[in-house]
Amino acid sequence: MYPRLKNLYHSSLKDKRFDTIIIGSGLGGLTTAVLLAKAGKKVLVLEKHYVPGGFTHTFKRKKMVWDVGVHYVGQMSDKDGLLRKSFDYLTDNKLKWADIGDVYDQVIIKGDTYDFVKGIQNQIKQLIHYFPNEEIAIRKYFDLVEKVASNSKWFFGERAMPYWLSNTLGYFFRKKFYKYSDRTTYDVLSELTNNEKLISVLSAQCGNYGLTPKQSSFGIHAMVVEHFIDGGNYPIGGASSIHKYLIEELEKHGGELALKADVKNVIIKNNKAIGVLMQNEDQLFANKVVSNAAHNTFKNLLVMN
Ligand SMILES: Cc1cc2nc3c(=O)[nH]c(=O)nc-3n(C[C@H](O)[C@H](O)[C@H](O)COP(=O)(O)OP(=O)(O)OC[C@H]3O[C@@H](n4cnc5c(N)ncnc54)[C@H](O)[C@@H]3O)c2cc1C
């Protein structure tokens, strides 16, 4: 399907004026782009790869499709849940999900297999079955996961509040989450138990956020565990369906996507981002610039010009 000629970057884009330029067409960039386009804004997404979608890329080998990143997402079975409703809105109900079954994760440590089963009570029961002497620690762990995940909603909610409110009351919304986000997963777990095997099993989902238990924040760990607690769902058609339907929706609402569009840096004037400089030295301007290029933004794109 890609690269589609119509999506390849062309210098004529520099003659247009955009409300928002978005750097990167990963899930974050495309979500922002669709929301803005649906709100009537003129949006341009610049993607340096010749395939859009970031970690929703897939590739084909011998008729089989392989996902490079996203391979399951939680909370998609609840049609009335916020996350599911968000995806439905963003893809105009086109993206469909398949339940991946009662066991959504499987951990194998030194030949022993541990299933992660759907539903918090089922999972507690299953873990007590594996570690009968650790019932208290297991129950305390899940209480803590639920508490910290719930506090994270206040933390993120505060980000969306008006400046005056966040400036005056923000601290109180953030502080409960900071208490655990500032501690490592290993640190918190080893307070609950000294059973290293149980700690390993409880931390095994760290593959989802990419840091070891001694490096990761317990706040993020708790959010990920809670996210999958009721099971996982697979995007029908593979991870690339996610970006495919997002792009369809973006273009339906007048947004544009340019591939092979490598941003060299963000143009800053009077401490405000006013546009981007491309690798070919084209300059593109917009009222707002949003970067979805994660740490690349701070490492490479914010050169003071
Ligand atoms: C191996 C792996 C497995 C994962 N599995 C899951 C999972 O099963 N479920 C789940 O929910 N999450 C999973 N994740 C996490 C999830 O994939 C990511 O959190 C999410 O896709 C990140 O999206 P993003 O938009 O922030 O960034 P990205 O997907 O990284 O997108 C950033 C985009 O910016 C582009 N870009 C960068 N610099 C520039 C530039 N200068 N100019 C133009 N474009 C630029 C990049 O090419 C890229 O397309 C997994 C991650 C990995 C690595």
Explain what this protein looks like in three dimensions.
By secondary structure, this protein is of the alpha/beta class. It has two domains: 5-69 and 238-301, FAD/NAD(P)-binding domain; 102-230, no CATH class. It has helices at residues 27-38, 82-90, 120-130, 135-159, 163-181, 185-192, 196-203, 218-228, 240-252, 294-301; strands at 18-23, 43-46, 58-61, 64-67, 73-74, 97-99, 103-109, 112-117, 232-235, 256-258, 263-269, 272-278, 283-291. The strands form four sheets. It has a six-stranded mixed β-sheet with strand order 10-2-1-13-12-11, sandwiched between helices. The chain is globular and about 70 Å long. Flavin-adenine dinucleotide binds at residues 23-29, 46-49, 54-55, 69-73, 208, 262-263, 292-294, 296.
List the helices and strands and how they pair.
Layout: E1 18-23, H1 27-38, E2 43-46, E3 58-61, E4 64-67, E5 73-74, H2 82-90, E6 97-99, E7 103-109, E8 112-117, H3 120-130, H4 135-159, H5 163-181, H6 185-192, H7 196-203, H8 218-228, E9 232-235, H9 240-252, E10 256-258, E11 263-269, E12 272-278, E13 283-291, H10 294-301
Parallel strand pairs: 1-2, 1-13, 2-10
Antiparallel strand pairs: 3-4, 5-9, 6-9, 7-8, 11-12, 12-13
Helix pairs in contact: 1-9, 3-4, 4-5, 4-8, 6-7
Bound molecules: flavin-adenine dinucleotide (FAD).
Quick synopsis:
This protein has 305 residues and is of the alpha/beta class. It has helices spanning 27-38, 82-90, 120-130, 135-159, 163-181, 185-192, 196-203, 218-228, 240-252, 294-301, and strands spanning 18-23, 43-46, 58-61, 64-67, 73-74, 97-99, 103-109, 112-117, 232-235, 256-258, 263-269, 272-278, 283-291. It folds into 2 domains: 5-69 and 238-301, FAD/NAD(P)-binding domain (3-Layer(bba) Sandwich), CATH 3.50.50.60; 102-230, no CATH class.
